[in-house]
Design goal:
The structure is a homodimer.
Chain A: H1 6-30, H2 35-39, H3 42-50, E1 68-71, H4 77-86, H5 92-95, H6 126-141, E2 147-152, H7 159-170, E3 176-182, H8 197-206, E4 210-214, H9 220-233, E5 241-246, H10 272-278, E6 316-318, H11 319-330, E7 337-341, H12 345-348, H13 351-356, E8 361-363, H14 368-380, E9 384-390, H15 391-394, H16 398-403, E10 412-416, H17 434-439, E11 445-447, H18 452-464, E12 469-472, E13 477-479, E14 494-497, E15 504-508, H19 511-525, E16 530-534, E17 537-539, H20 543-552, E18 555-559, H21 568-575, E19 583-586, H22 597-603, H23 608-620
Parallel strand pairs in A: 1-2, 2-3, 3-5, 4-5, 7-8, 7-9, 9-10, 10-12, 11-12, 15-16, 15-18, 18-19
Antiparallel strand pairs in A: 6-13, 11-17, 14-16
Helix pairs in contact in A: 1-3, 1-4, 3-9, 6-7, 6-14, 11-18, 19-23
Chain lengths: ~625, ~625
């Protein structure tokens, strides 16, 4: 794009002022919101999107050639929506329903507003999501799309931003552009670096980004010059770009400019009219234009049927190995499947996929927050990301995981090394709260297979499933118990052993299924008949089978290699909340420590021997 | 300390070799562990601890004047334990029980080994903990203690490290020294920067730390020179220090040196003897000495009784305000109480404490992972940290929170803005999974008071309690329902309404207590008698009262402003797992959105009206 004329700049100035009016009016109408945080970024974003540099076809929002914009500072949603109003996508009347119950224009952007690329509002997450989107554009779509991420200065304290900054430089994503709105003021006072642009530049440049400084982020000439420079440098030099602009929080409202104490509040009611008057004549019909995307030919990706891995019943295979096998086997059935891992692919076994299809594997290093954010970015761009690390380390990214549903992000999580059964490495490496964590994801799927065959089937199921899914895998080898062509379902279960006169039911998943089967055998020999259910689908849960067991047996014992809270026991209790049959939960209740897997299963009362003792004791009481 | 003589260096070399033998022998004995990661840091740590620079009195481990060492790369535990063996604290025989079931020498360091400052093993957490300990030393104890943190290069990808780096510079902690063991190799291959020391220096210096480079981290002369330099520069210049050393993973074992593929494995059994032979003659009795701590006079801190805040029944007060009041009121009763907040103190109301006692308040900016790590560091140094932010944002630090119990860290967490009842800001700001998260903490306390009086009492209770506690506070005002001198207890509850012929029980906490009381009043008018229990202590839970309600009423309804999984409903179900009375859980099941609090409580079926409808429907069915 050529340098702007003064007519262009005047038009951008008029548009900016109207956007300011919209920001102030919609937040005042709502009685809540963050106008001052929105006002500081008006020129930056107006000039980006309507100054000839932002390539987007409104009629085809999903076109891989479109540029993308993410508001990492999600509380500046009034600005985001005002920009889309200026683009003609939102009617001004609808904008005035900002934050109202039922309006898609929520307090922080979510997928309910169709132009939101990804939900934000929990700070420090947008750059990772943008990194993921840029990764998709550069390495998968091979499209000319650029991803622009509006960042607040306070949120640069978040470590996740520095993960994104490292990884973006490592992946040479010169199609990723951050816009750092340095308005000096956080929520409760000044940030660590105030208006010192060089403080940001020194740090970000040190990580290999190219920085472009804008002394006055409200001067259209300077801002457009920055956008011109971004355009000219971002060709193939491998450096992500950070535009760092000195701005004024509350710019445009004299009484608020650069004043602390006004974060997250609409303007004073009694100043409302005079503030609008200061912004000049309203122009509700003013609009701006995007540029056209560069012509781009997508590579069609074909899907091919996948065969089955051939396991023999009795083979000793770790379910984490079956995961690695499944990824490779299903790669051609799901041509958009990509794998991300956090420096542990040899442990999670995603390494098999990495070695097989290196172009579809992305090493994310020891930076789980960014890995999850990147997966969200990849997912909203239509990829099918499988994210793996130790189950315990997925807790590092719980904030990113809990936000993912609000982007409708189709991400699959795989946590290995679950439970005390990992043994001697000890509790820092043990996933003991991961089932609880993932169960809290609304409509999330939580699967915990016990053998290689069910694992592979479940990888296929969750790849096919639309929505967030979690697969828990085991470090140690376990015997294959299912035939290769056995079928499984989300919400299903397998009753491995039952009779018409079962005394008790054992409900288990993963490693404890094998303990339960061994216990059942031993109890059988003592004349106690045990039903055993493999609850491989923890959420959703097979209520009918569980209820039938509650109807037909005297007591249910759940057995899990996980803390009691929020796990399989509580899931079963919830399912039977109106049923009188008692449910006893065997779970990890003692402080977990280093030791051999067998000793730890015994310590925690979830080994076959412990199950036998617990069930016998209950039935004899 | 003066520059080392060649005799000193020879002694350090001999000690280093014996430490190498211990590392190799204990991991081979255990059959697991990370010898190569331990071997790369031998000279660095041996020379630090036994070269005259580490001031520590073994007989008084808790002396505030002691220097501190933390292994952020916790998998190098063989080195940590070998160093303490060299110090004479661990017997070599005991070292050989590394990782055995029952041994305090766990796979990654935990509090079960008495010299562990804080548990590590989940990477990227040690620098935050060290930051907290340095904060305690500099700003609270005002002691000469220095905190040394051994860091791996791969874990520098973790954003939490960059949070710690920012905050340490901001707080001018020149008593914090990082030791960056740049051995080039992560778990599955090379790190992003390999052996490029300048890559680390450029980045860390940009954040204001002073960097000291060591070209050969196995050359005692160079390493001791670095420690001499640390000693000379660390006086009062306000810059934290990073020693960045080029090292070799597996140093000392020729076949493993700098070779990928050997992470986390003991040496080959058939090479064991020759490897030991290459390390020279064993010297099981060689020991090293620490230096004496600088004489230091602790300021005694006296505790004074606290009064009560005076609330009137019926006053409308947000429990978050009561939290702020309680902190101030209890400050003199708990002289070690300090408050940390993540840039939202005006929202969490810890601002009152900040304004009252600024020396005991530490702004942690928008960096929750580091905030929690810092709190662990403060706690293990004997402070009483209260950590506050929005409940939703505590999920950002779940990994740090789940690790805290293994340090026996006495940290109190306070999450504000819980539930959909925060209203228009929308789901990114709503804590809806925090009860589930904190319930998974073994022996953790989870409290959720409904009014100002109970909130203040509970702050006192959890301050007095030894162990991790979580307090959930509400954004909106709620009426005071308790008298100022009402007593509460961890594990207690309040039955607000009961009769001998109650039809149903409502169990609620926090904001839903008020909804439940209003519902009960309405149901009363319809001739339905309702018992109402304020379950302010969710964990531990008042089993006796809950069971009595299950015995005496037909049905229990739990009502919570939280997702169903892992929350109050499941806690009550677990309590009544052997009881036939049905339990129905009212919780947040619909996708949360922006809107007024009232509309959202209705949407989610947890408002008074919804409760009335649900209970009536059930009883009429």
């Amino acid at each position: 794009m050529s340098t702007s004329t003064s007519t262009d700049l005047e038009q951008l100035a008029r548009l900016s002022q109207q956007i300011r009016r919209w920001i102030i009016r919609c937040t005042s109408q709502a009685g809540s919101g963050h106008p001052t945080s929105s006002l500081s970024a008006v020129e930056l974003m107006t000039d980006l999107m309507f100054g000839g540099h932002f390539r987007y076809r409104i009629e085809q929002p999903d076109d891989p050639a479109n540029d993308r914009v993410i508001f990492s500072k999600g509380h500046a949603s009034p600005l985001l929506y005002s920009l889309w109003t200026a683009a003609g996508v939102i009617e001004p009347d609808a904008l005035m329903r900002y934050r109202e119950f039922g309006s898609p224009l929520e307090g922080h952007p979510t997928s309910r507003f169709r132009m939101t690329e990804a939900a934000t509002g929990s700070l420090g997450q947008g750059l990772s999501i943008g990194f993921g989107m840029a990764l998709a554009a550069r390495y998968i779509d091979r499209s000319p799309s650029r991803t622009f991420v509006l960042l607040g200065d306070s949120e640069m304290a978040e470590g996740s931003q520095w993960e994104a900054i490292q990884l973006a430089a490592h992946y040479k994503l010169d199609n990723l552009v951050g816009i750092l709105d340095v308005n000096r003021l956080g929520q409760r006072g000044e940030t660590m670096y105030g208006h010192d642009l060089n403080a940001y530049r020194d740090r970000i440049e040190a990580f290999g980004w190219r920085c472009i400084l804008v002394d006055d982020g409200h001067d259209h000439q300077q801002v457009m010059q920055a956008w011109d420079e971004v355009e000219s440098v971002s060709e193939n030099n491998g450096q992500p770009i950070m535009v760092i602009a000195r701005t004024i929080k509350g710019k445009g409202v004299a009484s608020l400019e650069d004043e602390p104490g006004h974060h997250g509040k609409p303007v004073d009611e009694d100043e409302f009219e005079s503030i609008l008057a200061d912004l000049g004549e309203p122009d509700e019909s003013i609009r701006g234009q995007f540029s056209d995307p560069i012509v781009y030919q997508a590579n069609p990706r074909k899907s091919e049927e996948a065969g089955l891995t051939d396991y023999e019943i009795g083979d000793e295979v770790a379910t984490r190995d079956a995961y690695g096998n499944a990824l490779c086997r299903l790669a051609r059935k799901y041509p958009r499947l990509v794998a991300l891992d956090g420096e542990v692919c040899n442990s999670t076994r995603s390494k098999r996929f990495r070695d097989d299809l290196p172009d579809r594997f992305f090493e994310m290093f020891i930076a789980e927050q960014n890995m999850v954010g990147a997966a969200v970015g990849l997912a909203v761009r239509g990829e099918l990301p499988f994210v793996s690390t130790f189950a315990a380390f997925l807790s590092r990214a719980f904030d990113q995981i809990r936000m993912a549903p609000y982007s409708n992000a189709n991400v699959k999580f795989v946590g290995s090394h679950c439970g005390v059964s990992i043994g001697q490495d000890g509790p820092s490496q043990m996933g003991l709260e991961d089932i609880a964590m993932f169960r809290t994801i609304q409509d999330g799927v939580v699967m915990y297979p016990c053998d290689a065959v069910s694992t592979e089937a479940i990888v296929d199921l969750i790849a096919d499933h639309q929505g967030i899914a979690y697969l828990r895998t085991t470090r140690g080898k376990t015997p294959v118990i299912y035939a290769n062509d056995e079928s499984f379902s989300i919400g299903g279960s397998k009753t491995l052993k039952e009779s018409e006169s079962d005394d008790a039911t054992l409900i288990a998943a993963g490693i404890t299924v094998h303990e339960a089967m061994a216990a059942a055998k031993e109890l059988d020999a003592k004349g106690i008949s045990i039903r055993v259910i493999d609850l491989y689908s923890i959420k959703p849960l097979d209520h009918a089978t569980v209820r039938r067991a509650a109807d037909q047996t005297k007591v249910i014992f759940t057995v899990e290699d996980h803390f009691p809270e929020g796990g399989i026991g509580e899931a079963v209790l919830t399912s039977l909340s109106d049923h009188p049959t008692p449910v006893n939960s065997l779970a990890v209740r003692k402080r977990p420590i280093s030791g051999s897997p067998d000793k730890l299963l015994d310590l925690e009362g979830i080994s076959a021997g412990s199950i036998v003792a617990a069930v016998s004791r209950w039935l004899e009481a």
